[in-house]
Amino acid sequence: MHALEFIKQIQTQNTALAPVILIGPGKAQFGFEPYDPLLADRAAQAVVDRYIDPSMRDLSLSVFYADECEPAEVVKEAQTLPFLVERRVIVVRNAARYYQLSADKKSAPLYGLVEYLKSPNPSTLLLFISNKADKRLKFHKACLESGLLVECPQLDARQQRDWVKREAADRQKQIDGQAIDLLLERSGDYLGDIINAVQLAASYVGENPKITAQDVLIACSDVAEDTVWDLNDAIAKSDTEKALQALHQLLQYGKAPDEIMGTLNWMLESAYKACPESTLQNKSAFVTKNVTPLVEKWGYKKIIAALKLSTDTHFMMRSTGVDPKLALELLVIKLAAPIRRTTGRKRPAAAASRS
User: Fold this and answer.
1) 3-151 CATH, one of 3.30.2130.10, 3.40.50.2300, 3.40.50.300, 3.30.1370.60
2) DSSP assigned state of 226
3) Which of 148, 156, 183, 278 would be a feasible disulfide site paired with 18, CB 3.0-4.6 Å?
């Protein structure tokens, strides 16, 4: 099932969900990627919004990262009966790791999870989020036997236009066709970038209920404003004080925390695309030049970790009652922290002479 159809069903129909849901790549139109991470997050969020009472969140929602815990921990949690709630939701992120593990023998790391998937606990809703899929493997087959596959490819041109209209409507704005075309031209195909552009345009027009092409032209250049790049440079230089100053300045400009979060995500995604190891590329040489200091600070693996930290913070802001400004401050402090580099210790001269 396509993620858009899945989200619509969750929001408009009162049908029961399968006990296991695999959210992953899908077939995309030519020129588009098979997986959009933000679409996957929206699909998972739709389930959380429907089944999780915010006041009971600690009792009914668990989030795991497959690359940080053993599959047995997920199984144990899934088998636990709910307490004071009708159903529990477990979200397992980075589930692509499970495609790398064996399930062939009882001693294999994934054997227990695959066995659980054959007969899942009906009072637990288990969601796997994976940017990869392999239909040949036991994990994938077991998920489909007991549950549902939600496909999250990049949206095609028509779907992107509809998405922009909905995002604008959610902000009580109307946006005309010319403005949509210009916005998509500037944002690219990833939903994170598209939503960031809509947020910028909606904030720019203020109380005005309409977004025009001229508004998009002015507002979407906001991504390259001096303060945003000051924040970028301060993080790259590990200057926490200046990074927080830039963050507070953006808040003083009237930027909503959600908008700033989108800008940070865009910045980190742009740094990821600027890595030599990445298969993706920024469309703008200007952007690549400006995020290169982040690449030099972190490198490929640490940029992925920074993206994960940013995504977790955004999920927390949307799912809990945390103060969004405080969450942004903590994120910026963590991103601006100096990188610890280990160096070999020199042997004392006397010891060296004895060798």
Assistant:
1) 3.40.50.300
2) H
3) 148
Statement: residue 65 has pLDDT above 80: yes
State how far the alpha carbon of 217 is from the alpha carbons of 183, 184, 193, in Å: 8, 11, 15
Q: Which letter does DSSP use for residue 348 in this model?
A: P
**Following DSSP, what letter does each residue of 103-129 receive, concatenated?**
-SSTTSTTHHHHHHHHS--TTEEEEEE
Which ranges in 275-348 belong to alpha helices (H)?
Answer: 285-319, 324-336
Which residues in 107-136 are b (16+ Cβ under 10 Å) and which e?
A: eebbbbbbebbeebbeebbbbbbbbebeee
Q: Which residue has the tokens 């009708």?
A: 86
Q: Where are the beta strands (DSSP E) in the chain?
A: 20-24, 61-65, 88-93, 124-129, 148-151, 174-175, 210-211
Q: Which among 53, 34, 45 is positioned nearest to 6, based on CA atoms?
A: 45
Query: Domain 157-336's class?
Result: mainly alpha
Q: For residue 62, what are the β-bridge partners?
A: 90
* Encoded tokens for 29: 């139109």
pLDDT tens per residue, range 140-179: 999 999 899 999 999 999 999 999 999 999 999 999 999 9
If pLDDT is split at 50, 70 and 90, which confidence band does 108 have?
Answer: confident
Quote the tokens at residue 268: 């980190």
Q: Which residues of 182-211 are buried (b: 16+ CB within 10 A; e: fewer)?
A: bbbebbbbbbbbbbbbbbbbbbbbeeeeeb
Give the Cα-Cα-Cα angle 261, 263, 266 (nearest 5 degrees): 110
